[in-house]
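Final report, results section. Input specification for complex C-07:
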Amino acid sequence: MIELLLSIWNLVPEALQTLLIIILKIVVIAVPIMLSVAYITLAERKVIGFIQVRIGPNRVGPRGLLQPIADGLKLMMKEVIIPTNANRFLFVIAPLLALAPALACWAVIPFADGWVLADIDAGLLYVLALSSLGVYGLIIAGWASNSKYAFLGSIRSAAQMVSYEIAMGFALVGVLMAAGSMNLSAIVESQSGSFLHWFWLPLFPLFLVYFIAGLAETNRAPFDVAEGESEIVAGFHVEYSGMAFALFFLAEYANMILISILTAIMFMGGWLSPFQGIPLLEDLFAFVPGIVWILAKTSFLLFLFLWFRATFPRYRYDQVMRLGWKVFIPITIVWILVIGVGVMAELGPWFD
Amino acid sequence: MSIEPILFYIFSTILVLASVAVVTVRNPVYAALCLVLAFFTCAAVWLLLEAEFLALVLILVYVGAVMVLFLFVIMMLDINLVRSKEGFIKYLPAGGFVAILILIEMCVVLGPENFGIEITGEPLKHAADYSNTKELGVTLYTQYAYPFEIAGALLLLAIVAAITLTMRRRPDSKYQDPAEQVSVRRDDRVRIVKMAAEKKQ
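Structure output:
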């Protein structure tokens, strides 16, 4: 049986073989992301439920575990309504424009040593470039809906994204200065040593700025002024229904996972074990594969997203802008100078 | 036949079509989106030239920031399409003359006698460990350090000038000072008065 399959495989031309293998790898990455997105929605409702002393969804399936499936089915069955005088083409294409960059970023994410789809040198730049494209989906959705609330939401999100991208970019500049490389795998390797070698310690202000700017970029609470249901109904996706609406949510949650895993890679040592360099524990936990550590770190950061949403009230719009421009950008610029001095002085144990 | 020429022709066809669409479509929002597509395919062509740093920075700066602000402005303005089409015939001779002049100039400057493959030489194929980013950085900060610094200073000047030209403060309007707002303490706002409990009469 296996020999037969192998002989069929060998008949396939070589170019097609590479293409098939790449497609298979994409499926192996994309399907778990989609499943995680589905179950993060459940986790979010459960976590916030427990924070607010409620139980959360517990009706569909055992302990409510089938709730995301039910939600997905419901959204697929619903009609996609296109408002009158809306721009049909842009209205339909906007959710796709929001989702595609969120998924494309995953090409360069290393899950463990060597487990990466495209191990490119300019990985950090690629992530930054593609994550800056996500805003188009939001802007176009708001404009094409022919609705004032949607338009206000999209204008807010455009201003917010442009403001926080600068701080985010500067935080990444700090990381690449410290690591001496833009390759994400090399960034993880350069943090090797112990958990004190991870970049959260020498780059602590940038770590905070990056994660908070990530919150703002994904339009999550407390920075969800683009949605702002108490002010502008639901912001840019107020006119969307059914699967088109679901795509915006897929994009938002995929971006959340992306920001979390990037924070884990750049500041928390990626797939490196937290017990590295500790005599007894290192050997005790040596059997744990790297992907478990990176997923554990990502899950912790995702939990922070949910925790923040349950804890903080929404920022006022002018305060969002002030935080981005007048607080984060100066902090990052000053800390880049500090890192520059550290790298020149070869300050140990991080920059030697 | 390798796949690179096919990719090049696909991307350059999209690039040319998108660029033509930028100036021909009626809806300014569509024009801006076509410009985004043009930048994007241009970045893809640069990637084929092994200039990955420039390609990604083109997307990051122009697509991710500049065009977002462009779209932002275009969507905010209620552009009157009919009025912007007025006087097309009146300006046609002057516009056509300028267009032909620019075309001739470009042909003279960018023609094969200046940029042909004999003059520039065939682009080198680099090994996989060649870093375009590093090469650019080294050239920029050694050979062209002073021009780079001057360009940076000019940009800073432009930012300061733009802000000073457009900033106006009306003395009669009220402003919030967020710094003052966030530094408020409980003691400034609430005074807890301790009183002895009174007994029921």
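The radius of gyration of chain A is 22 Å. Chain A touches chain B at residues 15, 90, 120-122, 125-126, 128-130, 132-133, 135-136, 139-140, 143, 151, 154-155, 158-159, 161-162, 165, 169, 182, 318-319, 322 (CB under 8 Å). This concludes the modelling results for the funded period.
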